Amino acid sequence: MIDKIRVVIAKPGLDGHDRGAKAIAQALRDAGMEVIYTGIRQTPEAIVNTVIQEDADVLGVSILSGAHNHLLPKIVEQLREHGVDDVLIVAGGVIPEEDIPKLNQIGIAAIFTPGTSLQQVVEFIRKNLKRKRS
Amino acid sequence: MFNPDEIKKIHAARQRWESQLLNPTLEKSSERKAQFISGSSDAVERLYTPEDIESINYEQEIGFPGEFPFTRGVQPTMYRGRLWTMRQYAGFGMAEESNRRYKYLLQQGQTGLSVAFDLATQIGYDSDHEMSYGEVGKVGVAIDSLADMEVLFDGIPLDKVSTSMTINAPASVLLAMYIAVAKKQGVAATKITGTIQNDILKEYVARGTYIFPPQPSMRLITDIFEFCAKQAPRWNTISISGYHIREAGASAAQEVGFTLANGIAYVRAAIDAGLNADEFGARLSFFFNAHNDLLEEVAKFRAARRLWAKIMKNRFGVTNPKAMMLRFHTQTAGSTLTAQQPMNNIVRVAIQTLAAVLGGTQSLHTNSFDEALALPTEESVRIALRTQQIVACESGVADSVDPLAGSYYVETKTNQLEADALNYIEKIDQMGGVVNAIERGFIQKEIQKSSYQYLSDIENEQRHIVGVNKFKTENDTKPDLLKIDLAVQERQIKKLKQLKQTRDNQLVQQRLAELKKVAESRDNIMPAIISAVKAYVTLGEICGVMRQVFGEYKETIVI
After folding, report:
1. CATH level 3 topology of A6-128
2. Which residue of A has its CA nearest to B337?
């Protein structure tokens, strides 16, 4: 029996737009994954703690306030500081295309911008998991 | 509206039409879909006839504009007398940049200002707070103290321009700053006109910029009601907002139901605080969303007006017609804008503008086509404003009052939405009111259900979005986007440091101590906040004291 993929969906910073985060959380759950949603206004530190405590395979970060270039690197940095390197990190939100290469470079595997289908997100996660649950 | 004999005849004629014409047609070729759904996923019938509205009493339910139940509008002449206020929500970066944008918009023929604050400001943190990192100046202008507010309105005469401020948890602080700036311009508080959003209840369920728990938050709101009734009587003290509830994914009926349920809670709180519903009821204003489903949206606005009038009259017993009028601002639906083929959004916004105008809005913000990508540029904002101006000058829809009244579909839909919204209000009543319903997660759950339904419909192609799941193109044109860099944050923090070095810090401490005392008492908090802002106490310092006294709200997580 294969364990469920464990996903933390997080909202960093002060952004309250949680419609996307909640929809993704529900879609991943419907796709058979175990989803932990942090709620809004999480510090990078709190998000990293949740990822570690929940033994997550995937971290999905949702940002619509434009603070992605500042908050995403902080989260990645803190995960590294805690020695976490096998968690698949993805992000979604209102993120201009020109910002995406930089974010990919620091270790965000995919950026899902508005209009992405739920199926695409599910498939991406399944294909790109860094560790396999067995 | 129709006599029974007439309805019988129509019924018979309809049966004949169905058997002779419709059924043979359907046998030859089926319709495009097995079921047609509205923007809110309600069933849409093939045809509406007088039969659908046979029981409606024209005088009681539809009536005349400017009269109860205000279905047809709050003014007797509506836009023939005066057009709606064209008010573009704007703000970004530091106060200087936003001030320039406001002056630009006023030059372009905009008739009122609408201030967007950054998230740090909206949540009561100064720009140098650790939670503010990365957010300063992003979704709105950064305001730390009166010094920033002075720059924001520099050269803008506050006795002539009305200003709407989207501020909720710290609404009293920003209003205090506005009053202080006006005073410096020589404009008395009694002369200022505008609105603060000041609607905390929807923050808990949809928008997320709450600070304090419900009880002290409601006290802050009623303190503002009471203060303004005497000191700033032309100011609209609350804008009860369905906009964000809809943006969070609610249906049209939920938007109306949850918003009016919040309205009921504010009226109840104000009455409990000793205010007269006939007086402050006339100062309440609302804020709704305009989506793409044109006819459903028009019906929604009409239903909201009628339902609110009945609530004020029957539930609260007001006799002043002004206190029964639902006056509202509208913003086109940000969530309908697509990042794909962004120019198409201009057309979406035009449809939504028609919905708002045909629905009888008092003021309107039109979104810019690039807003699924970033904050709007000067050019995209101008197109958005021009969209309103084209509808006003060229479409003709503003020249007759409530022109869609009497449409079998629109009247049926108006009835349905009113009934569905009332049903939500009754459910919330049974739970003991809105605050209980929020704490139980009921409202959040309902919104979440609709939101997921909408998304699933798109996913399963039950709903087509041009450019997203239909008519896609490979190479989208990329518009130029507005960028706010981290330098804004650095400059803003530097400015704040300078302020803290040059102001009278002894006076600041004294004001903060006084504020704490008033916060702990039951006295009206507004005078203490005004004294504090005048001494250049910062927003973060003021909210810090209130956080100490009132505590902070933690969300009920519902998925």
Report:
1. Rossmann fold (3.40.50)
2. A114
